[in-house]
Design goal:
Number of domains: 1
Oligomer: single chain
Distance between the termini: 30 Å
Number of helices: 1
CATH architecture: 7 Propeller
Strand order of the largest sheet: 1-26-25-24-23
Length: 361
């Protein structure tokens, strides 16, 4: 067990209590209410792709759809030539009816996936120059945001899925914008850039981004961000190989709570889940690590997955969050059973992929 302690401030955790809740759509029934406390499920909220399927973006621009209804027999459902070059991002919108994909050329494509056997492209969006790093939905899904190597964050209107249009674009960092994280209740957004800073933004209802603050967070560029505890905290990962825990109680000034040297190479991905909010997974180099963050003043490495010979780029949860999928600079997608963290097992390698993988959904 590895412990990495720093001098830490221990803010009190805020629990959001509601006396009433408006449910605007019958598909929003996955609210978990315990003793009058709304447990806000970040994972379900933005990962609406049907749980029986896994989407994998290939280096050659192909989109692979895997049927994982039976984890003992995951089978390839179909392959779509989605882009001309490497797929960099996959995201779902509109309650699993549509997905967005992007590539190194800055093109965003919109796909109708209501019929998994007949996935149809219904839109193509341009505006970015070069690689797109991430998408995120905000303001009750009225908008989605994209960021990329062109240093911008772009806001797109989703009111009509057949007519998505660019609302606003802002130069957000002095270097590429590598990461986005929407905050609880959608109104605020964090961005991480190659200029080593985390910026906080407010998204107005007209789609304009209002700058709030900037914090120099790392000594090298920020590569990933993950919100925790209903937007009270955030974890950042960087090319400086550190992960850092930040208190967001004051949006004018981020407060560093703790930090940890996590990997031998850049931290590429942070995977968190509401069901086990005291744990996060990180990826950097050829190691996948699980961290216990129940004490926010210290990162405790619970276990590591090290049966990989090449760098891992991305992670995604499998059925019922009992499995994780990993893709990287190796052929195929690896599947691990994580139900017993003391005995994590590699159960499958999806070998049909012939190229490196940057995106899994």
């Amino acid at each position: 067990m590895i412990k990495n302690k720093t001098t830490a401030i221990k803010p009190q955790l805020t629990v959001y209590r509601f006396t009433f809740i408006f449910v605007l759509n019958e598909k929003l029934r996955n609210l978990n209410i315990q003793n009058g406390v709304l447990i806000y499920d970040r994972i379900r909220r933005f990962a609406f792709f049907p749980e029986d399927y896994l989407l994998v973006g290939n280096f050659d621009g192909s989109l692979y759809i895997w049927n994982k209804s039976n984890m003992c027999n995951i089978r390839l459902q179909s392959i779509i030539k989605a882009h001309d070059i490497m797929i960099t991002t996959i995201s779902s919108i509109y309650f699993n009816k549509y997905i967005l994909t992007s590539s190194l050329d800055g093109i965003i494509k919109v796909w109708n996936i209501e019929n998994i056997d007949d996935i149809v492209q219904i839109g193509k969006l341009s505006g970015h120059i070069g690689r797109i790093y991430q998408f995120t939905n905000v303001l009750r899904k009225e908008y989605f945001l994209s960021c990329g190597v062109d240093k911008t964050i772009k806001v797109w209107n989703l009111a009509n899925i057949n007519n998505i249009y660019l609302v606003s674009s802002i130069k957000a960092h002095s270097g590429s914008v590598n990461a986005l994280s929407e905050l609880y209740m959608d109104q605020y957004l964090l961005s991480g850039g190659a200029d080593n800073t985390i910026n906080i933004w407010k998204l107005e209802h007209n789609g304009e981004l209002l700058f709030i603050s900037a914090t120099i967070a790392h000594v090298n560029e920020i590569s990933c961000l993950s919100e925790l505890y209903l937007g009270r905290y955030i974890i950042s990962g960087s090319k400086d190989r550190y992960i850092k825990f930040w208190d967001l109680s004051n949006l004018k000034r981020l407060i560093l709570v703790s930090q940890c040297f996590a990997h031998k190479k850049a931290v590429k991905c942070i995977l968190s889940r509401i069901e086990r909010r005291n744990h996060i997974w990180t990826v950097g180099d050829e190691i996948i690590r699980l961290w216990d963050i129940s004490d926010i003043s210290v990162f405790i490495c619970v276990c590591s997955i090290s049966d990989i010979n090449y760098d891992v780029n991305c992670l995604s949860y499998g059925n019922s969050k009992c499995y994780i999928f990993g893709g990287g600079f190796f052929t195929g997608v690896r599947v691990w059973d994580i139900r017993n963290i003391n005995k994590i097992k590699l159960i499958s390698v999806l070998k049909d992929h012939k190229n490196s993988i940057l995106a899994i959904r």
